[in-house]
Q: What sequence folds into this?
């Protein structure tokens, strides 16, 4: 199992022909700008055609904000795999130079990410055993990566 | 599962990636977390101290070559992990794809 945290810029993302991630999480905040960027990324994601392309809502403050993300998902025909609430504990953890999980294992955001993990595992169709990429794999937001667990 | 986390700057990609990696590892999965950002912050979100991060060598020029499309690995990820990864909490392996600084820029 491999998790790739890519840099924000859309350029590298769109160049990344070699991005053979089987699952792509498009993280969005429930604000107009972020939702519009999310929509563009979903479009690019569709071109890259991962087996699973899903949205994750982050920094959600209320039902109305969650609805906005669900609306984007519906209009793109994809699912919302998780919704993480706006959680001050993340900022507190950062200030304490600590990982959220170490700072407060019971933070609401942790619970939500735990649910996201469960959802991803429950809907994981991966059976290839995670092949290591060969020489020449692109890195920097464009890695072809693998390793299974 | 090969999972890419994407999104606009500052949406929370790194916070979610780091926490998700550890939670998946706690469920017994072997997890490799790859920081694809030239400004690596995934370590912190995983709970790896900056000091330990600095002890890890940057990808040297023999390991990464620049192409029009981006950086290209000259070794397999497995070979790379042997020298450029470290153990993060909960048994997550962290690989930072940080290219070596260009001469004169750092
Ligand atoms: N659910 C949340 N509630 C409150 N704050 C959050 C939440 N998720 C992330 N943050 C905060 O938002 C900021 C950006 O988060 P993070 O660094 O994870 O985003 P990113 O998408 O990786 O950013 P970049 O594009 O710069 O790599 C951080 O200060 C983080 O603590
Ligand atoms: Mg980040």
A:
């Amino acid at each position: 199992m491999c998790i790739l945290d890519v840099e924000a810029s859309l350029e590298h993302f769109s160049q990344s022909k070699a991005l053979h991630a089987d699952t792509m999480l498009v993280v969005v905040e429930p604000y107009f700008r972020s939702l519009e960027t999310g929509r563009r990324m979903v479009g690019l994601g569709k071109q890259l055609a991962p087996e699973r392309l899903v949205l994750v809502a982050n920094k959600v403050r209320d039902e109305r904000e969650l609805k906005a993300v669900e609306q984007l998902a519906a209009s793109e025909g994809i699912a919302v795999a998780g919704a993480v609430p706006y959680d001050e504990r993340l900022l507190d953890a950062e200030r304490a130079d600590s990982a959220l999980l170490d700072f407060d294992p019971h933070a609401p955001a942790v619970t939500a990410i735990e649910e996201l993990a469960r959802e991803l595992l429950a809907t994981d169709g991966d059976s290839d055993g995670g092949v290591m990429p060969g020489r020449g794999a692109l890195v920097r937001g464009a890695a072809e990566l693998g390793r299974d667990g | 599962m090969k999972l890419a986390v994407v999104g606009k700057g500052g949406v929370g990609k790194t916070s979610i990636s780091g926490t998700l990696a550890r939670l998946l590892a706690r469920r017994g999965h072997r997890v490799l977390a790859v920081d694809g950002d030239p400004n690596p912050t995934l370590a912190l979100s995983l709970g790896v101290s900056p000091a330990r991060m600095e002890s890890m060598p940057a990808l040297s020029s023999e390991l990464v070559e620049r192409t029009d499309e981006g950086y290209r690995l000259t070794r397999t990820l497995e070979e790379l992990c042997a020298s450029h990864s470290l153990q993060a909490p909960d048994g997550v392996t962290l690989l930072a794809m940080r290219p070596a600084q260009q001469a004169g820029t750092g």
About this structure: The pocket of magnesium ion (ligand 2) is lined by residues A 5; B 13-14, 37, 41 (CB under 6 Å). DSSP finds six helices and five strands in chain A. Residues 32-48 of chain A form the longest helix (17 residues).
